[in-house]
Amino acid sequence: MLRLDVLRTLDSLRRIEPEWRELHVEARASFANSPTWLTAWWDTMRDAGPLPFRDRELLAVAIRDGAGALVGLALFVRRWVRVALVPRLRLEALGTGEPKEDEVCTDYPTVLARAEHRAEVVEVLAQALLSGELGRWDELQMSTMRRDDPVVDLFVQAFVRARVGVSVEPSPAATAVKLAPTFDGYLATLPKKHRYAVKRTLSDFEAWANERGGSTFERVGSRAELAAGVRTLIELHAARWGPRHLFTSERFRRFHEQVMASLIDGVDGRLDLWILRAGGEPVLNVSRSDTRAVGLELFSAGIRRIATSVGLAHDKPAPSSRPRDSRPGDSRPGDWGPRDPERG
């Protein structure tokens, strides 16, 4: 028999952080479901957005077995939104829903659960949502979930059994690169013209860097080095993307500073920040890319109808005046790069 504990403050959530961390690892969920990511998001984004819709209420549902062990954890935020000019009270996954200019692209939110309890956890959670045990909501939204996440289908099945209509729609697919164990192995997987472009770009860069005294890689590996490393990252990002770059958002910057500070200490992972220098000047830093996700959005009004609407926030086309949110890396503009790939 499972029981629910409802947590409504960050302090109460921090008290179960060791159990949360253990459950996150066992569930093999994305880093964006970890305590490091989500506590930083709440610290920096809980009041983001225009009035009167900026106030958010934390709603964490800890699900325990008869022995008191944490077997499931669902993390939501409750806030007012406007849908077709009508105010609605929305529940959404913690880590999502911040304004576009602050968006940190929380990927693959889910309900954390031990595999042997997953179906029961989702069923108990769905019943609590529909019964009103978790309070009022007009709209429940869980966006950018993985389509192969078992929680998606379990949610659908639970609401169908409750005679609530559900639909699941895929978001646009993001680009993913499957890497070989070695760089040469990766090159071997490329078509000829792409392989040429990579090799020629490396050759051009080496020649360009040698004119300036050569190139070096520098790894940021300690708290003492982190502040300077972050400054370099932001400078390169601004040089590449212009005055409206992402770090102009104070919330976006504070979020990443907090997450990187935890990671440099080895909490929930390890920060791996590298800076490429040519002639002593930084020219490149490397960041990550994302993969496909789907969203599950549930509506509950007077007649308890449920539908879905999705959007992969970090893969939506951005206005031409603003850079895309997901990039393989940032670099300074320069005069080196691939020439005609059809030449050989």
Offer a concise description of the structure.
Helix content is 33%, strand content 22%. With 344 residues, it is of the alpha+beta class.
What does this protein structure show overall?
The chain is an alpha+beta fold. The protein has two domains: 3-175 and 290-315, Aminopeptidase, CATH 3.40.630; 185-288 and 328-336, no CATH class. The chain contains nine helices and twelve strands. The chain has helices spanning 10-15, 17-27, 35-45, 118-131, 150-161, 183-188, 192-210, 223-241, 250-264; strands at residues 3-7, 56-64, 70-83, 86-93, 112-113, 139-145, 169-170, 215-220, 273-278, 281-286, 294-299, 329-331. Strands 1, 2, 3, 4, 5, 6, 7 and 11 form an eight-stranded mixed β-sheet that branches. A four-stranded antiparallel β-sheet has the order 8-9-10-12. α4 (118-131) crosses α5 (150-161). The longest helix is centred in the middle third of the chain and has 19 residues, at 192-210. It is elongated, with a radius of gyration of 23 Å. The chain starts with a strand and ends in a 13-residue tail after the last strand.
* Strand-residue proportion: 15-25%
Radius of gyration: 23 Å
Amount of helix: 25-40%
Q: Structural class per helix/strand content?
A: alpha+beta
CATH class type of the largest domain? Alpha Beta
Oligomeric organization of the protein chains:
single chain
The helix-strand sequence is: EHHHEEEEHEHEHHEHHEEEE
CATH topology of the largest domain: Aminopeptidase
Question: How many individual helices?
Answer: 9
What overall geometry do the principal axes of the alpha carbons give? elongated
